Amino acid sequence: MSPILSVEHVGVRFGGLVAIADLHFDVREGEIVSLIGPNGAGKTTAFNVMTGFLKPSQGEVRFRGTGLTGLPSHEITRLGLARTFQRTSVFPDDTVFDNVMIGLHRKGAQASRAPLFDALIGRAGAAERRLRARAEELLDWVGLSERSQEKAGALAYGEQRLVGVALALATEPAMLLLDEPVSGMNASETQVFVRLIRQIRERGVTILLVEHDMPMVMEVSDRIVVLNYGRLIAEGPPAGIRSDPAVIEAYLGQGSAARRAAAEAQEPADA
Amino acid sequence: MSRLLPIALLAGLVVLPLALGSSPYVLNALITTGILTIGAMSLNLLLGFTGQLSLGHIAFFGIGAYVSALTSLGFDVEIGFGYRIVHEPWPAAIGVLLGILAAGACGYLIGRLSFRVRGAYFVIVTVSFAEVVRLVALNWVELTQGPLALTNIPAVTLGIPGLGTWTLRTKLQNYYLVLGTGTLCYLIIARLVGSRFGRAMRGLKENESLALSVGINAARTLTIATVISAAMAGAAGSLYAHYLRIIDPDIFQFATTVTMVIMVVAGGKGTLLGPVVGGLIFGLLPVALRPVMAPEAQWMVYGIVLIAILFVMPKGIVPGVSVLLARLRSTRSVPVLEASPAVPR
């Protein structure tokens, strides 16, 4: 299958600091790909380049054949590439329902030619009703219907992540970038989330995932891309990555936390 | 309840002059308070709903006043190379419309200039803009009469085809003109805030990166908000010019912007009624204090009242009171678990 997203020799430098040296990989349509690597490897930086929050110092990201360099973030979303955020995944002062309504901004634009004027003369009623129905559908889909009238900022971490996913899905993306979606979730919440990721893929959405939870990554990914010190050190299906010497060294070479992560990644292979 | 409150407030303001009798002193205070309150409402659209602080808001107010006054007075200025612009006086109502348009156009320029780069830049650009406009009003004597002031500005004439025309000369007429304009601005802001556009503004204020990532165009949304806000401030300014019938460059005083900010913050920014409540309190406070104390003491009380309000209700009067009401209602049922505002990210 053709690549939906190509990262072509991307480099990012902040002054003298090299965040990403030379990153080159493809994601094909319908895949679930994980981007892993020790802390500071450049994973979130890569996400920020793909979604227009950072300009690469070299190289280019292409999405469905369109070069993304220089495009503002909201234009990239309009092309069908959505993302979630590692920490701040909600609009904290609004209800969960209103969060999704804000996320449906793009869909609202399709409903009317002059939405601002319609709103002023009170003609936006029908379009608003459709948006509200859609918001309820999305909340139901991620399993947050019962929370819909609560302030998003008051939700538990795991639930805030789900709101973030609902927001990203509200833009009707062709591809979704998830930045550490299960960090802070317990095992059962993670399992629910894994099912959700698979359902999203079944709807035809390609997924690129940054995650530290190795068992989860091994379970859900079709393919894994490993970064270390801003360089790609390995790429392939989970089974190959588990036994890849470069990957093991990248993790074992770090502190004890990384050692544990590497050990966790090994466990399913031994089992 | 929350829908009835503004209607009750409006009804109260409609009958207020009847209850007070027609004391010109009180009516004058109510009119100037009303005009400043419209300014505060327009400022709240930016400060409260998008989180952008316009510290030069008085510029839009003053531009509305000057454009409207000059349109209805006429002028004759040399613009260089021997060319002159001669403008014959037009009706005041057209002046008001042009004042609104001119202020909105300035809002557009300011928005385009400052929202490419965000944050403190908007504050700096608006403050400098206000100062530049003040200097122009002060020094372009041929057009503005400078410190000599524009005088004899005509009163607004309203006409309904087939019914006749009214020239709004009395204080009572101006009171209802201001009240009507204020109500219209309130309705426009309420519609905007409840719409898709309002959600885009809230999204940008609460979490800009996330708002961008769901496809909200930040520069466009903030520029539109600035245009609408500036146009409303311009409307307030032109009402001011045609009511006082004399304006000078002192209209651009920085202190007036500060007064509007105080009205918004004390009343509750980001709420519809906040600037109205704050505007009435801080507009009428000097009037209430004048008979009982010296001007210096008035300013101290002004400050103390502001500090007291923000000490008891840090988010302003309207949010503070609604939290209180919610608590009263639920004392018998479940205890209210307050959402901590400082959720770790």
General description of the model:
The complex is a heterodimer of chains A (271) and B (345). With 271 residues, chain A is an alpha/beta fold. Chain A folds into two domains: 3-80 and 173-266, P-loop containing nucleotide triphosphate hydrolases (Rossmann fold), CATH 3.40.50.300; 93-164, no CATH class. Helix content of chain A is 44%, strand content 23%. Chain A has twelve helices and ten strands. In chain A, β1 (3-14) and β2 (17-28) form a beta hairpin. Chain A is globular and about 65 Å long. The two termini of chain A are 33 Å apart. The model of chain A has no long low-confidence stretch (mean pLDDT 84). With 345 residues, chain B is mainly α. Chain B is built from 14 helices and six strands. In chain B, a hairpin with a 3-residue loop joins β4 (157-160) and β5. In chain B, α2 (24-47) packs across α11 (254-267), α3 (57-73) packs across α10 (218-244) and α11 packs across α12 (274-289). The relative contact order of chain B is 0.17. The A-B interface holds A 51, 53, 72-74, 77-78, 82-83, 85, 87-94, 98, 101-103, 105-106, 108, 115-116, 119-120, 122, 124, 128, 131, 151, 153-154, 164, 167-168, 170-171 and B 188, 191-192, 194-197, 199-200, 202-203, 206-207, 209-218, 224, 339-341, 343, 345.
